[in-house]
């Protein structure tokens, strides 16, 4: 298995090189040269596997034996040892057709832990085995940063800098990131929004001399390993369902911001998981919903919502989807991305919209509907959703034609992370101890302007450049 870029100008590379490259050096996103096919028989044989063993099977299709099996197995075991549920990702049944896959039982209470605990361990492994300098640079709307920091804090050979939008993450998210005192962690609080943070890191990754000098590595979903690790939970959810419920295929409702969560499902479907509908759930920052329903990919004004982690306009993984939509034609992708850069929008024809809608449907959830959903599921099922998971449930309800097959809605965060929204409907929650204790800890962060030069200077002072 080799990896190439959606823009076609990266010579095919192996798994570890792909992991270290992160963003394609031609500005594109890295994808596998071919997507392996998992047969129905193989799937059946995997149906009794633990989450960890299932991940080992899926990853083995992609790693080219670059990581010996016993090492990969240990990396995976270690990555989920800190999850509090014995099933790692429990599937809760609300009624016969609606199931909630709880992805938030990791150390930072959000679905990002599923991939990032593993990526932190993989970076430490590569740092040691290959004597590589690992200087991680990431942007976050709150969850990726907390999770990535938790996965590498204090680890030898690794430094991590995370940019988050100042005042636009939840209190708990901010504390999770900024109360970490390890010297290998730098939090930059940027006077801007998440898109500004993401834009700056992409520019720094695209500056190849800077990237090379400072050995920049990615933990965001621009890194294909994030997507691959997330695709495993679609296999798992499908296989956890009783056979009679999954016989007609399974539908997923997926809270999405950077298009990473849903693209992972799209990849799982391409590999052979019998997924019928992928329902994309957005909040009021609904660029992706407008893309799917109206064929217009165009950022509009940024809005602060009750689900701040999805307050995103420019979605990284849109380009990965575009690549497959364009029949894996890197020239067509490059042309469309150039047009987007020049004109600030992409318009799709009605024939193209129909094709997109065969791949996924979409629903955008207003702030009001988000809170109503939290309230009604608390009343009806005594189940407390966080605002992002509530967007998923609201989209499941709003997704017109339910068709056949069970629905799995992805619960992407613990409600304690977003108490600001939960309190608005008068619900008081008890925080898990690991969250409660954050409130007594001192914080460490540097506030910076939304300016690439100022941020680059911070990085130059922080990163170690030789072993
Ligand atoms: C809690 C939560 N839910 C859903 C999402 C959406 O995930 P993605 O942006 O990877 O599609 C995010 C981050 O964006 C998140 O932090
Ligand atoms: N919601 C994310 C935004 C960053 O997206 P990523 O999937 O590319 O890491 C966050 O919580 O930071």
UniProtKB/TrEMBL annotation:
GO MF entries: pyridoxal phosphate binding; threonine synthase activity
Residue numbers carrying N6-(pyridoxal phosphate)lysine: 112
The keyword Cell division appears for this protein: no
Keyword tRNA-binding: no
Pathway it works in: Amino-acid biosynthesis; L-threonine biosynthesis; L-threonine from L-aspartate: step 5/5
Cofactor(s) of this protein: pyridoxal 5'-phosphate
Signal sequence, start to end: none
Catalytic reaction list: O-phospho-L-homoserine + H2O = L-threonine + phosphate
PROSITE patterns: DEHYDRATASE_SER_THR
InterPro entries with a match to the protein in the record: Ser/Thr_deHydtase_PyrdxlP-BS (IPR000634), Thr_synth_N (IPR029144), Thr_synth_N_sf (IPR037158), Thr_synthase-like (IPR004450), Threonine_Synthase (IPR051166), TrpB-like_PALP (IPR001926), TrpB-like_PALP_sf (IPR036052)
Threonine synthase N-terminal domain mapped to chain residues: 2-80
EC number of the protein: 4.2.3.1
Recorded family membership: Belongs to the threonine synthase family.
Function statement: Catalyzes the gamma-elimination of phosphate from L-phosphohomoserine and the beta-addition of water to produce L-threonine.
PANTHER family (alphabetical): THREONINE SYNTHASE FAMILY MEMBER, THREONINE SYNTHASE-LIKE 2
UniProt protein name: Threonine synthase
Native species: Cohnella herbarum
